[in-house]
Design brief:
three-stranded mixed β-sheet; globular; 10 helices; mainly alpha
Length: about 300
């Protein structure tokens, strides 16, 4: 890396998820449908939270932010993957590749912190209910979201400023459907072992710190509610199951992609698809199907729409 950016590679070749044309067409239809559901589902959640006064609380404010980030997470790689299914030459420019890496880490760091903030919100609501309105004021909620965006940006910059300077002078095939950071680093014309370890440590610090904070929050919630009620365990689980499910769905693939890579091609591809497509797809379903307030908001919106349609 002493010579700065010595790259003479102007684009990379993505090998994608398969080679059979019929299989590619099938994948195109499947993932196009899933992507449209992701965008629609998350837009519906954001619209309901913005327009329904019953949902104007810190928990739903953070949920709206999570929905936006989930939509952005999928949009970073999925549209390119979908369009490549119908292309023979699946190439991506050097700038496009660096952009995917940057936003992948930006979004990952951002979503991790938002999940921690949501856990903190539930901790205050359940463990310190009398102080909730004071602790979770609008001003503090705004600053928590700003902090999440800041952490995501700083984490992404710490990755991309190093990767963009790597010398890429030879191989340019990436055995994935997007520019996965470990695979891109493998193409550098240098011994990248120490660099990959440092990158994994960088990701690990963010991921493990957030995961520990999540464990502490949910452990305190369960202990507090169990001590205050005989049916505390079931109530706590009912309140936090959606949050915990989303945490597991997000952190599981994320850890094995960026912190502790398995280096098994088919498994890496599966985890990448799950992380970028199925996690943003499942989050809206989890929060709407398991949340009475969201269900009621959907009913109110539907009733308002039907009334408006009849009157016009």
């Amino acid at each position: 890396m002493d010579g700065g950016n010595q790259s003479i590679v102007s684009e990379f070749v993505l090998l994608g998820l398969g080679h059979s044309w019929d299989f590619q067409v099938l994948l195109f239809m499947i993932f196009l449908t899933l992507y449209l559901i992701i965008v629609t589902g998350n837009i519906v959640i954001m619209t309901l939270i913005i327009t329904d006064p019953h949902l104007h609380s810190p928990m739903y404010f953070f949920l709206a932010n999570l929905s936006f980030v989930d939509m952005w997470l999928s949009s970073n790689t999925t549209p390119k993957m979908i369009s490549d299914f119908l292309r023979e030459n699946k190439t991506i420019s050097f700038a496009g590749c660096m952009s995917q890496i940057f936003f992948s880490h930006f979004i990952a760091g951002l979503e991790m912190v938002i999940l921690v903030v949501m856990a903190y919100d539930r901790y205050v609501a359940i463990c310190k209910p009398l102080h909730y309105s004071t602790v979770m004021s609008l001003h503090r909620c705004m600053w928590l979201v700003v902090a999440a965006w800041t952490v995501g940006f700083v984490h992404a910059m710490s990755q991309i400023v190093v990767i963009v300077q790597l010398p890429f002078c030879g191989p340019r095939e990436i055995d994935s459907f997007f520019c996965d950071r470990p695979l891109v680093i493998n193409l550098a014309c240098m011994d990248s072992h120490k660099l990959k370890v440092l990158m994994n440590v960088d990701c690990g610090v963010v991921a493990i710190t957030c995961f520990i904070l999540l464990l502490i929050s949910y452990t305190h919630i369960l202990i507090t509610v169990c001590q205050n009620s005989k049916t505390g365990a079931s109530k706590a689980l009912s309140t936090c199951t959606a949050h915990i499910t989303v945490v597991v769905l997000f952190f599981g693939p994320c850890i094995f992609i960026y912190v502790w890579p398995l280096n098994i091609t088919w498994m890496d591809k599966f985890l990448a698809v799950f992380y970028s497509v199925f996690t943003p797809l499942l989050n809206p379903a989890i929060y709407t199907l398991r949340n009475k307030e969201m269900k009621n908001a959907i009913k109110r919106f539907r009733s308002y729409y039907m009334d408006f349609k009849r009157n016009n």
